[in-house]
Structures are given as C-alpha cells and as structure tokens.
Inverse folding.
C-alpha cells in the first residue's frame, strides 16, 4: 500500500489536493482546517475523523503554521518522507506565488480602494471559517466535564491572563498524562476512544 502511495500519480494527487487547499483558503492555518477536513476525510478518505484531531493537536505543539504542519503530517502518514514533501510543497506554493505577485505590485495594490474593499469583505468570511473549525473540533474533543474545564481554563488563561500559548499546550499535555496515569478509565472517556493500557 505504501509503495502504491509513493507512485508519482498518488504523489501528484497529494500535491494537487494541498495546492487546492492552499489556493482557496484565506486567513491562515486555522481557516484552512475545514478545507483540510473536507478534502482528506470526506472526499479522499485518506485520514479518519478521530485521527485528524490528533494531527491538528500535534501540529499545534510544534513551531510553524498549523495548516503547513498538518499537511506535512498527513503527507508523511500517507507516503513517508516523499509524501510529506509533496503535501507541504502543495500547501505552501500558492502562498509563495500570491505573495510574490502582491509584493511586486504592492504600491498600486495598497492604495486601490477596490482591493481594500475585497479584503474588508474577506475578513468576516475568515472569522467564520475559524469559528467553524473551532466548533467542529469542540464537538469531537470536548466530551465530558473534565474536557470542558480544561477548555474553559485555557480560554481564560489565554485571553484574560495572556499566558503563553505553548505553555498552555504543554500544560494540557501534562494534565492528559496525569489523568491517564491516575484515572485510566476516565482517560478513555476524555479521549473519546478505547486505547490499550
């Protein structure tokens, strides 16, 4: 199976899929989450619904944009290192092309009222995409009181007390380890799936 996925046709399809995601998503990594889910879960069936949450969680724990990291993880899962390269190139290339074009025309674009109106119209759509991704992830991951408390505490610490996001991610990982060690039955419920002890 892995050998078939290393064929040029599969790698090109991987590249094409992530190129499409990168081309039609404005607003950065979080806005890409719904499109990534739609393409790799619903259309292609490359990743399962419960796996994508783990991929997004892992993508957030390392430096870089979540969409780029997630595409790298997915590409690696599907076709090893070469898959990671093709998927990452696919999602990054549209931005490189668009930014290069905008940078070369920036003086004219900056003062163009039509372009300004376009960006003003796109901004609420980006917010909606990010909210949609958050709601989907919420439904899949917050499935009991402990998960709800962790989520609420994280929001408060991030917005009210301005705690560093990587520190919150690290703290969430520690809480997960503690729950897993002290309450293994509870851990299964929090994770929403059975795992071997």
């Amino acid at each position: 199976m892995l050998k078939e996925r290393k064929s040029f046709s599969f790698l090109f399809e991987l590249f094409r899929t992530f190129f499409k995601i990168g081309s039609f998503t404005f607003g950065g990594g979080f806005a890409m989450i719904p499109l990534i889910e739609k393409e790799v879960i619903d259309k292609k069936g490359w990743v399962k619904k419960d796996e994508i949450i783990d991929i997004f969680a892992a993508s957030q724990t390392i430096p870089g944009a979540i969409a780029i990291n997630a595409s790298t993880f997915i590409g690696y899962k599907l076709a090893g290192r070469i898959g990671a390269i093709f998927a990452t190139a696919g999602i990054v290339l549209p931005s490189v092309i668009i930014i290069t074009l905008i940078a070369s025309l920036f003086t004219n674009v900056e003062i163009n009222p039509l372009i300004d109106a376009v960006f003003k119209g796109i901004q609420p759509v980006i917010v909606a995409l990010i909210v949609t991704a958050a709601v989907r992830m919420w439904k899949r991951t917050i499935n009991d009181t402990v998960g709800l408390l962790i989520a609420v505490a994280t929001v408060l610490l991030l917005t009210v007390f301005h705690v560093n996001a990587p520190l919150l991610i690290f703290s969430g990982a520690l809480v997960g380890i503690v729950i897993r060690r002290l309450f293994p039955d509870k851990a299964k419920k929090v994770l929403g799936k059975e795992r071997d002890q």
